[in-house]
Amino acid sequence: MPSRFASLMMHSMVFRLVFGFVLPLFLQSSSVLSNPLQLGLQSTSSGLPNPSGLKVGFYQYTCPNAEAIVRDEMTKIISQVPSLAGPLLRLHFHDCFVNGCDGSILLNSVMGLPSEKEAIPNLSLRGFGTIDRVKAKLEQACPGVVSCADILALVARDVVVLTKGPHWDVPTGRRDGRISVKQDALDNLPPPFFDAGRNLYQFFIPKGLDAKDQVVLLGGHTLGTSHCSQFADRLYNFSGKGMADPTLDKRYLPRLKNKCAIPGDTTTLVEMDPGSFRTFDASYYRHVARGRSLFTSDQTLMNGPAAAAYVRRQAAVADAGAYPAEFFADFAASMVKMGNVQVLTGAQGEVRRHCAFVN
Length: 359
Description:
InterPro entries: Haem_peroxidase, Haem_peroxidase_sf, Peroxidase_pln, Peroxidases_AS, Secretory_peroxidase. The chain is mainly α.
């Protein structure tokens, strides 16, 4: 998506309701908010519970081969287009953060009412055709049974596994939402140019996700690429001062500037985890620890002692070439937790026949 310097109008759209929502938090004690990540990284038990009706093996009797169908199709797709792994993982994030994991990110705009797809943060999303392809296979096997929201969750798990990441059991039984609103995406997706503490309070905590979930889920940036426009302000005009972000590694900065020579470039792609952007591992944390992450939202994890300790611990594992057991277990747990956010179950919503349209 274009970053804030690209257009003052776009900037105001992202911030308009966010500021109104978070104001009471900023009025709290400054000793707490000056470093929100000092909250620590022990996962809380106060997050969203596993909703009734959402369970592992939900389709055991109604579509017993559902997960196998998804896995087989994804194996074919990722073997042919490995660069889709990151975007498909991102689709699940962007779905769950906007009014819950209900497949609303997949809906097309209708009758002049722009959907979430049209929001600035979602303009660079890819993989919609993949979801349609998987859905078509499932409809052939079990018409009207497997929801698009569940497909997103299963696909996210499978692309992680197919890129050498962890496996986890995905609770299923989500129903599809019928509403998708552009403004909701603007109001609920954490911007890459906000600092980690601000994103934690404004976007993660309201969804039942805590500080540990944040640092763990951001590790998903080990997969994929980003457009220059999402972080160019850190290279050329950080905080509106016409200079680079001082936390960026001085040796890495010239390489990024060479790659992103034009601040408003919305076409050039940069690897988020250089050298390993198609493999799910802990190496992304090495870049964060060394001041080489692309986004303010990631780099400022180093501002909090607990988050910084987690980053350094995973970076050390990656440097040693060891198996990232802690990160893999944590990522699996946080993905299940995120996948439970505001889900529709039972008679709520519907099961779409085509993911881009309501029935």
